[in-house]
Amino acid sequence: MHHTAVLPRSFLYVPADRPELFAKACNGPADALIFDLEDAVPLGRKDEARRALRDWLAANPTSRQQIWVRINQASIMADLQAVVSPGLTGIMQAKCSPAVLLEATAALTDLERSRGLEPIGIIGLVEDARSLQALDSMATNPRLVTFAIGEVDLMADLRMARTLAAEPALDSIRARFVIACAAAGLRPPLAPTSTAIRELDAFEQSSQKMLNLGFRSRTAIHPAQLTVIHAVFSPSLAELAAARDVIDRFDLAGGGVALDVAGRMIDAAVVRGAQETLSRTAQRND
């Protein structure tokens, strides 16, 4: 049941205990929303947030955006009982581990059956070293759409400092997510959240790096980050034209030797890259 649809470019976090923000977020430019029942909501307001989100989902069964909900690993059933509904695209499972993923899968199966819903996908948010080691085994779960990186928590668990010296090691960890997803036939992972709300030049540079590493989407904690995400993760008109040209030349060759506009050979791998570039035009919701 691996989900193969192209994921959006941008996922904007929305605190689930702030219902006054729901309509504004839905009318904004984000491709997808992640209503957050986890870190964004104080412990004493979890029940209130569940009720607010349940009521909003019931009143808004359709949306131009994908609607995801980040749930707690300690209250999986309570969170899912509140949000599993026709308006839900999928779940982001916080602190995803093999055991947590199995628990969420079983809970979803029960709720879908009792509520007459189609299967709901999961994005696994990995935040600790043990779960990092289990990427390949978790990737075989048929509900898993892709992974996301809880980079702050993961670095703390690994005792890594956020310094330039540590960046190569961090990039190697990011690459592990890309490799695990590609090997299992999942969608590319979500690039990690950044607190660079005002430092948009730095955010653009890090987003470009994530794109080059193989990420195709990124989470945002502030609407100001969305413009950057859309600019970086959207193929340019020139890239789209070049991709179409590669495919056309390959098709015209009819299995023979084909060369691109620069005289380089076009093989099946080059064509796959061109097809992937064209597929990313489906990421936007506008």
Automatic annotation (TrEMBL):
Keywords: Lyase, Magnesium, Metal-binding. InterPro entries: Aldolase/citrate-lyase_domain, Citrate_lyase_beta/mcl1/mcl2, Pyrv/PenolPyrv_kinase-like_dom, Pyrv_kinase-like_dom_sf. The keyword Magnesium applies. Its cofactor is Mg(2+). It holds the Pfam family HpcH_HpaI. Mg(2+) binds at residues 127, 153. Transmembrane segments: none annotated. It comes from the Bacteria. Substrate binds at residues 70, 127. GO terms for molecular function: lyase activity; magnesium ion binding. One of its GO terms (biological process) is oxaloacetate metabolic process. Residues 9-223 form the HpcH/HpaI aldolase/citrate lyase domain. PANTHER family: CITRATE LYASE SUBUNIT BETA (PTHR32308:SF10), LYASE BETA SUBUNIT, PUTATIVE (AFU_ORTHOLOGUE AFUA_4G13030)-RELATED (PTHR32308). This is Citrate lyase subunit beta / citryl-CoA lyase. It comes from Cryobacterium levicorallinum.
